[in-house]
Every structure is written in C-alpha cells, then in structure tokens.
Amino acid sequence: MSVAFHLDTDFYKAKVGSAVKRLTLVNFRNYKYLRLNIGAPFVVLSGENGSGKTNVLEAVSFLSQGRGLRNAKLSEVKTFDFLAATQQSPVFINNNGWAVSAQIERGGEEFNIGTAVESIVKETNYNEVKEVERRIVQVNNQKLASQNELGQYLSIIWVTPQMDRLFQTGAQARRSFLDRIVYAFDTSHARRLAAYDNLYRQWLQILKSGNINDSWLVALEDQMAGIGVAIAAARREQIQKLNDFTEQNPDDIFPTAQLSLDGTIEQMLDDKPAIYVEDFYRESLFNQRRNILYNDSGNGINKTDLRALYKKKNVPAELCSTGEQKSLLLSIILAQARFLIHTRGLPPILLLDEIAAHLDDIKRDTFLYKIRELNLQAWLTSTTPSDFLSIKNSAQFFTIKNNMVNEIAEGLEAAV
C-alpha cells in the first residue's frame, strides 16, 4: 500500500535552499548534448535500465569536488564516437572532451558552475613529455585554482545502489564515504587528502626504485605525519559532531546510526596530544619502509575504516538486514543534510539513484517527505515514475529513451 502525503500549495511551491535551475551536458556518457531546465524541488528520471538515468545524476555530481558518484576516470566519461554520431545538437560540438555546466540558485542568488576536461603537456622522467587530461572548473566564467574550492559554492550528497552494501564491502568505500562527509563541512579536507596522496606516491616510488635517498624519505615522512594527523583529527572531530547532533535530534522513522572510526591514528588522538601522534606516525612510516613493498599494512590514515552501529538494537550495521542497512544509510544522509543546514546554512542537493529499492512504500514516501521538509532539491531515478506519485505536485518528471530526455508535462498517471 502506498501512503501518499499531500503538501499545501504554499509549502510545495516554496523555493529550495540550493538548486540546479539549468543543466547542460556536452559529450557526456550517452549524451552528445543535453539541456534540462528545472523548476521543481524534485527531479524524477525514469526509464529502462541502461537508458542513461544515472548518467544525468553523475553529471550533477561533477559540480562538486572529486571524480563523481561513479569515481570515474576522466577518459571514461566522454561520449563514445559512435553514439555522438547518432545524435543531433543545436550547436556545433567537437569531440575533444566533455563538459558539464549548470545555473545554480542558492539563497536567492544565482551563479554558474562549469567543469570540463582539457589536455595539457606534462614532463615525465628523462626529459620526456606526454599529453594528459585534467579537470578544470569555473564559477561565473572565472577559473578556480582547484576543484576543491567548489565546496564553498555547492554541497552534493548522493546515494547509489552500490552503496546499499556499504557496510559489507571493503574499507575503501566506507573511507571515501567518510571523507565526503568531512569535506561537506570542511572544504580544506580534500586539499589535505590530495596533498597526502601526492606525498605517499612519491614515498612509495622512492622505495620501489631501490635508489634510497634517506634524507628525501625523512622529509616526506615528516610532511606525511603532519598532514596525516590533520586528516585524522578532521575525521574524528566531524564524526563526533555528527553523532552529537544525531543524539540531540533523533529521527522518528529511520534508525539512529552511531558512527565510529577504526583507525590507529584517529583512536590515538582520543587521549594523546597531536604532537605525540605525529611522532608516532613518523616513526611508523620509517619502520614500514622495508615491509611496505611486500605487505601493505600499517597504521596510516589510508587504512582507517568507518563503522556504524544500529544504536537502538546495539547491532553493528554489517550484521543488520538489507532493509535495515538501507535505512541506516538514509538516516546518516538525512542527519548530514540537517547538520549542514544547521552549521553552514548550505542546503545540499541530493542525488538518489534507485532510492526505492529495499524500502517499503511507507518508508519511501516518508523519506521523500522529510527531504521536502528540509527545502532540498533532490534528483531521483527509477525504472518507473509510479514510485514517486506521492510527490507529483512538487516534482518534474522526465522519461529517458534512445538517448533522449523528455518531460512528462501532463497525464502522469496515464504514463505509468
């Protein structure tokens, strides 16, 4: 049984805090050119599996820092030539790369965000050069120094079907989820992560080369220890704040998830000063030099794991049922969204790919209602729009077929 909620006219016509008003894709996945004009809190994309619904959500996710909701390489995103040849465009488009641009409305102000790929010549070893691709970002036609700056303008949170098994897969997926939570509140976190990864690659390359330069390694290890402890401290602080907020503002439908960090560095910061932990980290890196090439173990921040507990039942998330794990995930997402609004006054945009899976009708409709209460814009996908009839008065519905996106202007019930 579907439980439909009804919102009064003033409520569902209220403006959302942050929204994509116009989205344009060029050479992106299965779309040579696509432009969508959006004027509703909910955007529902329906179509058969493989039609390109998730591709649209992925494009929106590239308006934030990182590699998008698929964690894709830049070269994987560009439209295949044979697909581009079958589609027409109102403007001339070359096939050199892909681009996403959007008109954003936030707090009554409008601005434009654009991101694209450009090719640059990069020096390699032995005075050789090679052509590589890199992502560039612009706000109001002004190029940003780094994509990490996008967090100052827009926050985007997503849930994908792959995340349904977040608590059962490897630690890397949970660590990425953790770091995106932290980045939403602390935009410097992504810069620290990038700096640490760069230092780690240099460190590992020296060890693999066999040409050991002790002074260089010591310098790298000193920097890695300082940045690594800063990363661990940011993770620890943000998870504690989110737990405290959730404790004070429990959800009445979805289960409360208590989060914790399973990482040596993070746990040491509970009762040790940062300077002590840095010394420990530096010594640990020194001791790992011999073993790192053969045994990828250690105490670094690249081994931290995120744990979740179904608080009411006192059961670890990985031991819960599939439906309970999905509810715990959505509980974390809702708490993060509420806390973002509370602390930064920056309502995020939600990307919810096949969100109806593993949810009964009541929980699905309740979740949608809670999103609307927060004045958020949410993009949703499904194989059928009937999953979202309860929000028909505050949503735009689009169907996708043969690489074409068409709005269902009227007669929604007939379309489903």
Explain what you see.
The protein has about 425 residues and is α/β, with parallel strands linked by helices. It contains twelve helices and 15 strands. The protein starts with 8 loop residues before the first helix and ends with a helix. The protein is globular and about 65 Å long.
**Rg calculated over all Cα atoms:** 23 Å
Shape: globular
Number of helices: 12
Order of helices and strands: HEEEHHHEEEEEHHHEHHEEHEHEEEH
Question: How would you classify the quaternary structure?
Answer: single chain
Average the pLDDT over all residues and give the rounded result: 87
Q: Which regions are unreliable across 5 or more consecutive residues at pLDDT < 50?
A: 1-14
Q: How much strand? A: 15-25%
Helix/strand-derived class? alpha/beta
- Major sheet details: 6 strands, antiparallel
Number-wise, the strands total: 15
Strand order of the largest sheet: 2-1-4-5-6-7
Separation, N- and C-terminal Cα atoms: 17 Å
